[in-house]
Every structure is written in C-alpha cells, then in structure tokens.
Design goal:
Blueprint: H1 2-14, H2 18-31, H3 36-48, H4 52-62, H5 81-90, H6 97-109, H7 113-126, H8 131-156, H9 163-169
Helix pairs in contact: 1-2, 1-5, 2-3, 3-4, 6-7, 7-8
C-alpha cells in the first residue's frame, strides 16, 4: 500500500500536479507522523510552490538525528513504518527518482550537504543509471571535501592570520 502511495506521489510530481502530490505527502504524514521521507517531499513541494518558510520548517523537522530519537517500544528499526517508507520511496524503480534528484539539488543550494548527498543517493537507488544524479553526487562530494579541507586549514592557522590577509600583503 505504501509503495502505491509513493508511486502516486512520484507520478503527480513528475507531471507537475504539485497540489495533488502535496495532498499525498500530507496524507502519508497523517498516517505515519514520524516519516521523514514524506516530510522532505512535502518540503520540496512547499518550496516549489513558493512557500519557502513552510518548506524550511518541514526540512528542519526532517533533519533530526535518528540516533537521538527515542526508540519505539519493542519494534525493530527495520519494521517501523518510517523505515518502510524510505524503502518504498527509494527502492529500485521508484517513480520518485526525479523528485529525489530535485530534492538533492535543493538541499545543496540550501547548504544542507549531508541531506543533499542522501537524497541524491536515494535517486540512484531508485534509478541506478541516473547520470545527472551520479554527476551531482561526485560534484557535491568533491565540494564537501574541499570545504572540509579549507575549514581545517582555517583551524590550523595561527590566531590573527587569515589567508585573505596574506594574499593582500603580496
């Protein structure tokens, strides 16, 4: 049943019927309140329909540390409804590959690099031959590595020295 809902969400998204896709995402969230996947897609749909503030609220709510979440009593993690949603939405052949890709690019633009990579990897899980997603993963991974190296250099620089100050003196 959940696979059918996510396929319908993907079909509406691909055809540009964003109001219907939003209704599906909200319906899934009503049934499974802890589903991060439909919350992320709801955020994407809100963003695409110029409701940026609501979209950011959805993204912030979805960006939780799952290890900090309280465990559901006596339910193994792989049997939780939210885990089944992730499998349904990113399984091979999922109609949501394009939406995952768009979500990944949006997360990248918003500076949410970890979420961007996760969304793009879900696009590749759904459609392993998705060349644009492969390219985006490589670029974001390279960008993230560059940012991390730059951050480490800034941390290691002696207090009061900045690379821009050094360049200005040359």
């Amino acid at each position: 049943m959940i696979e059918a809902l996510f396929d319908l969400l993907g079909t509406f998204y691909q055809s540009g019927e964003l109001a219907q896709a939003e209704w599906i995402a909200r319906s899934i969230l009503q049934a499974i309140p802890d589903d991060i996947v439909s919350l992320q897609f709801l955020g994407l749909l809100l963003y695409r329909t110029a409701r940026r503030s609501e979209a950011m609220q959805a993204f912030n709510a979805a960006d939780i540390d799952t290890s900090a979440a309280p465990p559901a009593a006596a339910v193994p993690p792989d049997l939780r409804a939210s885990a089944q949603c992730l499998r349904a939405a990113s399984g091979h052949g999922s109609a949501l590959a394009g939406a995952w890709y768009d979500l990944g690019l949006l997360f990248f633009r918003l500076g949410r690099y970890g979420q961007a990579l996760a969304a793009l990897q879900a696009a590749l899980a759904a459609r392993p031959d998705y060349q644009a997603a492969k390219t985006a993963v490589a670029r974001i991974a390279g960008f993230s590595a560059h940012r991390e190296a730059h951050s480490k250099r800034q941390h290691l620089a002696p207090a009061g020295t900045h690379t821009t100050a050094k360049r200005a003196s040359k």
